[in-house]
TrEMBL record, chains A, B:
GO terms for molecular function: kinase activity. It comes from the Bacteria. SUPFAM superfamilies: Actin-like ATPase domain (SSF53067), Winged helix' DNA-binding domain (SSF46785). Belongs to the ROK (NagC/XylR) family. This is Putative NBD/HSP70 family sugar kinase. It comes from Lipingzhangella halophila.
């Protein structure tokens, strides 16, 4: 939200963040204590506090009588426990997922609803509104809603509060602002799932995460130094379009032999059926595995090895860290993940071998919505310095 | 340099950076103007200014008589033009390179000297000292030296001011501190070359850079958001050890079929000789090319295609940006770079194709030393907010 802000606005924001950080860390403080802790001038501090009180982010209350000495009572300032709430919405291909956090950044609810592919955007936004209302049964004070994080399918140019999703939803930011009356931040939902896993999921606390999603599409996201890495045009994380087969099958992206052509859920099911197996979806494949089907086991072993090879190259390039595997195909479990890990460890540089970790994702379908919240918490100038959840580390 | 600093020290550093930034931006300022521009309290500001004057970073001088009105003269504060100088040293395998910048971050000199491989570290540090003295003939005020940036060969664990280079030079930081009496920051020299190219070289002004060095080793570095990306253990940028051939030749790293086994200067010269060519080094190969040698052209075409394939996968993963090719092998020119670019563009995702740029590196042998300076300028808490060079963009 800072792309167009001038230097003075940014300076003020830095001071505001500092005040919020101190209130979060030290609890109730008088203006005078806040002044000496922050090093800000009386004028600057009083202006910032007045603004924070007027937006509801901070509340002022008289100190306990025991703490008063003489003269007029000293007001103590605290973060407003009902303010600072953020909602995340993931507009997936055939479902809407929502999630919400309170001021302490604890997840207080999630909800999902499937819909037919191609549902018009107006109806998807309405559906998201209904789901949010279902969360708000008392626990959620929507009046204190500060911002909305949103995930969408496909590349997002200029991700953030002036995002342009590539897949033709130009007016989505407008629809959302009309409905929710708060600033909106948009990014790709798979990349947001990576951020969610690094914030609340199986990579919680890790600052260097490679997240790979093996679903009907194959994609991912990179978290470096605790922040989402997007690349200049928001085109990072396209692991599914790394070429793994010379003269391979054509891919939806326009290329050939991409990882997605061999490791997507659809590609794996096609290959399984071509080898004589019978499975319409990943759960059917997983249950064939459980029944000892060797064809399924061999196929997933080959796919795992292929994926492990790509991940090894990637870990050599960006540095070893925690690798998280999500998406429906990860539900097939060890048949995929064990050969994947074997090849990953065998092919990463020997010096890096012990620094690579591998875990299955744990947030499931709501990862995108949770990641949209994490994005707002990381990027909003007012919220970014709020107290973090216990699992997420402080930004560098 | 901040890893062990407590929150109050970090807060004070932020204020100090702000004061330096304002002085850099607005030129000479009175304490009172500095107070209103910064929003800092009188007490905080006066303490910071006193400390900056005592370290020599800022000088106080009386205002011009015309500007005085009445009473005691108002002092104006300015950045000390002789302070803030940084030296970079690159301890390469067989040479030491040094470079220095002045307070405006302009490069004011570089020097290099070759030495036998395996020269003891004490002698290498002495050699560096002599080279630095050769730079100091009047232009360089070593008394104002603030920090030393250092590049070394091989992985560097915990890069920064408490770095441990992997290749057995435990006492290097101590030797350097004894000799130069200033804080020392160490990182891998190839990664530093990446930062130098992004700061002063062919990627100047680009915030997303993939730098690949094709020399007798193959490595590289990643610049994301204008900063060096290291990975948690300082093991990023090992592009040379991405596997490109199944069951390929053994590699120095302990793996097999690594990019380095086909695209290092040594591998290319070996292959050229195996195909009947005669060349002892890259200049001889380049001159064979110039004489129309088809064997050399075909070989470099194959190597370029192989490298382009790896780079395409990398651009799909981290997002397209500027790709910079350095190292001796890049001197072979279009015979290598044209097929490399063709394959890179053909194999990156179609949607990313127009966002990828390719340039040869331009800083040559001193890139590591210059990158070491850039590292200090980016990372030192006091210097990081100094006015940047005209070509480097503001940090995000």
């Amino acid at each position: 939200m800072s792309s167009q802000a001038g230097p003075l606005i940014r300076l003020r924001r830095g001071h505001t963040e500092l005040v919020l950080e101190l209130l979060g860390k030290h609890g109730p403080l008088s203006r005078s204590s806040l002044g000496s802790l922050s090093g800000l001038s009386r004028t600057t501090l009083y202006e910032i506090v007045a603004e924070l009180i007027s937006t509801g982010a901070v509340v002022a209350s008289p100190a306990e009588p025991a703490q008063r000495k003489r003269g007029r009572p000293v007001e103590k300032l605290t973060l407003n426990p009902r303010a600072g709430q953020v909602i995340g919405i993931d507009f997936a291909r055939r479902a809407v997922h929502v999630a919400a956090v309170n001021v302490a950044h604890e997840v207080i609810g999630t909800a999902s609803e499937a819909h037919p592919a191609g549902l018009p955007w107006k109806q998807r936004v309405d559906l998201a509104g209904h789901l949010v209302d279902s969360l708000a049964g008392g626990a959620l004070d929507l009046g204190a809603l500060t911002a909305l994080g949103v995930g969408v399918v496909g590349p997002v140019f200029n991700p953030g509060d002036e995002a342009t999703p590539a897949h033709g939803v130009d007016d989505l930011p407008i629809l959302l602002r009309e409905h929710f009356q708060v600033p909106v931040v948009i990014d790709n939902n798979t990349r947001l799932a990576a951020l969610a896993e690094a914030t609340w999921g199986s990579a919680a606390g890790s600052r260097e995460v490679v997240y790979l999603r093996l679903s009907y599409g194959v994609g991912g996201g990179l978290v470096f130094g605790g922040s989402l890495h997007r690349g200049p045009q928001g085109l990072s994380g396209e692991f599914g379009h790394i070429r793994v087969i010379e003269d391979g099958k054509p891919c939806e992206c326009g290329g050939t032999g991409c990882l997605e052509t061999v490791a997507s859920a659809g590609a794996v099911l096609d290959a399984y059926r071509a080898a004589g197996g019978a499975a319409d979806d990943v759960p059917a494949l997983t249950s064939a595995l459980r029944d000892g089907d060797e064809t399924a086991r061999e196929l997933l072993g080959e796919v795992g090895a292929r994926v492990g090879d790509v991940l090894a190259g990637l870990c050599n390039a960006v540095g070893p860290g925690l690798v998280v595997i999500g998406g429906e195909l990860a539900d097939t479990g060890p048949a995929l993940l064990e050969p994947l890990e074997d090849v990953l460890r065998a092919r990463v540089m020997p010096i890096s071998r012990n620094w690579v970790g591998l875990r299955p994702a744990m947030l499931g379908d709501t990862a995108g919505a949770l990641g949209a919240i994490a994005l707002v918490l990381h990027e909003s100038p007012v919220l970014s310095r709020y107290p973090k959840t216990s699992t997420s580390k402080e930004d560098a």
